[in-house]
Design brief:
This protein is an all-alpha fold. Helices cover 68% and strands 0% of the residues.
Length: 289
């Protein structure tokens, strides 16, 4: 019996593996969300010092900083997080949301990202079943979660995630996984150029930059995965998602209306919805006519 046959015949094992993997990946995504912007900022600083021929200053920063080094520690007291303190969701509950060293509160964002990653993974598994499409859609979904959280906190959409996502979308559609290659390539071009044109028009009229270039690359990646036909739906959904979340942040969280809200998270959420339910939503629009 092959793995596909085994998991197809035993749903409990399949979904159990998906949940476990989702929680583990969610824990890793927390590392990416926190560390990747710091790595980018350090790299930019080093490039600026090199270009301006200035002396490098470490300012008590570790010489080597990556996704794997140094080991995770409490930002308040430096307590090294032991393996049993790093079990997704469970450790947060056992520790009652506090560091075991200094008793300072741990952000609830960590278990929420882990739980959300597991939940998203289950939805993807239910939709695509035991298949290559499911595995690829999981990578797509996990990438969008990382981009959503990084952009929400730092107003950054790292090229180190958007570019691989873009090229992977074209690559998988060489084998017609979600659409055909021609539609994928046109989707990538149309996704980038559509927002680029909006950006240039807005800047011409107002003299301000309405969005970042990372948004263009993200929509290009979404177009590469799902094709140009899905782009109008993604843009419309992103507007709806943005309105709902924006109003929620203002009303429930007391966010200032004048404070800028990044567009990337709305694009990412809309893109994921389109991947899972895009065809059904489109048929709802066009069915009666």
């Amino acid at each position: 019996m092959t793995f596909i046959e085994f998991f197809s015949s035993t749903p409990w094992a399949f979904y159990g593996l998906v949940i476990f993997t989702g929680l583990a990946v969610g824990s890793f995504l927390n590392v990416v969300i926190y560390r990747l912007p710091i790595m980018m900022e350090r790299d930019w600083r080093e490039q600026c010092h090199e270009f301006l021929e200035l002396e490098q200053t470490q300012e008590n920063e570790p010489q080597h900083f990556s996704l794997a080094f140094p080991a995770s520690a409490c930002p308040h007291c430096g307590h090294k997080i032991r393996f049993w303190e790093n079990i997704p969701v469970i450790s947060y509950l056992l520790l009652k949301g506090r560091c075991s060293g200094c008793k300072q509160g741990i952000s609830p964002e960590y278990p929420l990202v882990e739980a959300a990653t597991a939940a998203v993974s289950v939805v993807v598994a239910m939709h695509f079943g035991v298949s290559l499409q499911m595995l690829l859609a999981l990578v797509f979904s996990w990438s969008l979660i990382a981009l959503t959280m990084i952009d929400f906190h730092k107003q950054l959409l790292p090229d180190s995630i958007t570019y691989p996502l873009l090229w992977l979308g074209i690559l998988v559609n060489m084998f017609n996984q979600y659409t055909d290659l021609e539609t994928s390539v046109i989707g990538a071009m149309a996704g980038y150029l559509s927002l680029w044109c909006v950006y240039q028009l807005f800047k011409l009229v107002t003299g301000k930059e309405g969005m970042g270039f990372g948004d263009f690359k993200l929509l290009a990646a979404l177009g590469a995965w799902m094709g140009w036909q899905m782009l109008p739906l993604i843009i419309l959904l992103s507007s709806v998602v943005g309105a709902v979340i924006g109003i929620g942040l203002i009303v429930l969280a007391g966010r200032e209306r004048s404070k800028a809200i990044p567009f990337g998270p709305y694009l990412a959420i809309a893109g994921w919805i389109a991947l899972i339910w895009g065809d059904q939503i489109t048929r709802m629009w066009t069915g009666p006519f």
